[in-house]
């Protein structure tokens, strides 16, 4: 039996007609109804927004919502037919569950963690997760350092190779620099949430953002840890598949 970290609500099948203004997607449902759905993804969605593709949407019963439907999944055919997660609000929710279940042995033992913790220059940034070993006490030893974890949703692929980012990201560059500044006093982890199950390898998207790619390599040389985490996406739910192999 598949162990899902997240179960989707009931989904409706359709065909993507077009995505526009970043937050909107016109979709024809299997019933023939034409809808405009909310697109919860601000990025370019390179390779995962092709008109004519099969999609899945959820529906809210909240009468105050302007758009009842939310675009959740798209099916791509880069390798074999594969569902890809579109909703960028989900990765952090799922990683929170995975941390609660201790699914990443690479992080070692820890007592607790918090989300959205201020850090960085002037404490103006927020790290996705701060993990505390030893009941929250900061112990500056090799095996008992606080762990700062940044999560990046990853959907771009070339064959079996997942790539991040899919566009130039000054925000992503900033996050790398802030994580580098934490080393070596703390552990810093970049967790790439590979939001599709067909990729077994990971590399930085040098063609889309060479600055990010070089920064990532510089950060790794300083001690940044990389967890390219694979997830199987289906209309039923999302489950963890383990780590992809780094190719850089």
Verbal overview:
By secondary structure, the chain is mainly beta. The protein has three helices and 17 strands. A hairpin with a 3-residue loop joins strand 2 (11-20) and strand 3. The longest helix has 13 residues, at 170-182.
Averaged pLDDT: 93
SSE order, one letter for each helix or strand: EEEEEEEHEEEEEHEEHEEE
Distance between the termini: 35 Å
How do the strands of the widest beta sheet line up side by side?
1-16-15-13-10-9-8
Q: How many helix segments?
A: 3
Structural class: mainly beta
The major sheet is characterized as: 7 strands, mixed
Q: How much helix is in the residues? A: 10-25%
Strand fraction equals: 35-45%
Topology:
Layout lengths: L5 E2 L3 E10 L3 E6 L4 E5 L15 E6 L9 E8 L5 E4 L4 H11 L11 E8 L5 E8 L14 E8 L1 E3 L2 E4 L5 H13 L4 E8 L6 E4 L5 H13 L2 E9 L3 E7 L1 E2 L2
Parallel strand pairs: 10-13, 12-14, 13-15, 14-17
Antiparallel strand pairs: 1-16, 2-3, 2-5, 3-4, 5-6, 6-7, 8-9, 9-10, 11-12, 15-16
């Amino acid at each position: 039996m598949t162990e899902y970290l997240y179960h989707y609500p009931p989904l409706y099948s359709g065909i993507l007609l077009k995505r526009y203004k970043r937050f909107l997607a016109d979709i024809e449902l299997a019933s023939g109804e034409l809808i405009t759905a909310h697109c919860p993804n601000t990025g370019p969605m390179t390779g995962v927004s092709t008109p004519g593709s099969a999609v899945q949407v959820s529906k809210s019963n909240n009468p105050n919502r302007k758009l009842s439907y939310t675009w959740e999944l798209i099916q791509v055919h880069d390798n074999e037919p594969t569902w890809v997660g579109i909703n960028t609000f989900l990765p952090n929710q799922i990683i929170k569950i995975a941390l609660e279940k201790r699914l990443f042995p690479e992080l070692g033992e820890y007592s607790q963690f918090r989300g959205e913790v201020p850090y960085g220059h002037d404490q103006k940034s927020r790290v996705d997760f701060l993990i505390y070993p030893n009941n929250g006490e900061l112990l500056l030893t090799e095996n008992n350092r606080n762990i700062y974890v940044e999560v990046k949703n990853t959907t771009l692929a070339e064959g079996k190779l997942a790539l991040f980012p899919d566009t130039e990201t000054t925000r992503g560059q900033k996050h790398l620099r802030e994580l580098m500044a934490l080393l070596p006093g703390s552990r810093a982890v970049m967790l790439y949430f590979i939001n599709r199950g067909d990729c077994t390898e990971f590399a930085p998207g040098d063609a889309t953002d060479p600055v990010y790619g070089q920064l990532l390599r510089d950060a790794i040389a300083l001690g940044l840890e990389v967890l390219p985490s694979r997830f199987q996406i289906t209309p039923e739910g999302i489950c963890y598949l383990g780590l992809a192999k780094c190719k850089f």
